[in-house]
Amino acid sequence: MMLEANNIKKSFGDNEVLKDISLQVEKGSVLAIIGPSGSGKSTLLRCITQLETVDSGEITICGDTLVSNDKNGRAVYASKKERANISRHLGLVFQNFNLFPHFSVLRNITEAQRKVLGRSKAESEKNAMALLKKMGLENKADAYPYQLSGGQQQRVSIARALALDPEILLFDEPTSALDPELTGEILKVMRSLASEKMTMIVVTHEMLFAKNVADRVIFMDNGYIIENGTPDEVFNKSDNERTKSFLSRYYNID
Q1: Mean local confidence (pLDDT), 208-222
Q2: pLDDT confidence of 223, banded at 50, 70, 90?
Q3: β-sheet with 75-77: strand ranges across
Q4: Global pTM?
Q5: Gap between the Cα atoms of 230 and 216, Å rounded
Q6: Would the pLDDT of 251 be above 80?
Q7: 9 CB neighbour count, 10 Å cutoff
Q8: How far apart are CA 217 and CA 221, in angstroms?
């Protein structure tokens, strides 16, 4: 199992955002997480990637335990060094790109390789150029983010995440800031990664992607996992009224 989360709880003050969340992700699979805004989807990703800490529960990533409970049921995290090593298993693609505006495209992709992985400049640039070619952006290496379309910026951010050789790639609504035409560019890249058996967790409002590309789909609402099953089970065979109500707005999904 590449990732396992058990009984995750997370509150911000009196607002309980995650309520006893458990899930598993197998190697080479795509997990799509769907649900209304405010259901806890992005918070869950932030907890997995250590951008937030959980209040209780257990998260194991690639066999390494990130957090578990003490005898009082409170979260206890691994050491700082262990947490840093665990984070290298993961790559995260944000919805708003998060590129460094004062770095060229090439440097956006090489910087972390050199600082985190200790790669040479030559090796980092060779790897970056191969990824840019894969993204159809090999002619944009010297450009700056402001000179790119939203779709191009997001493809650069995917290349940057892949440059660190993650074993699991996480996407937090990667197309939400894009218009429909540019959305297609990103979904094409993600479908290609799925065909290469890249392990992915995708928080998305793109129901067609979830239905046709994901191996499993989780539907979250109000901090709970309401449904967890295959795309066919969630989209076509659910008996849950909340799931059916949410999906009814996407009635023409094929």
Answers
A1: 96
A2: very high
A3: 15-25, 3-12, 56-61, 64-69, 75-77
A4: 0.94
A5: 4
A6: no
A7: 18
A8: 13
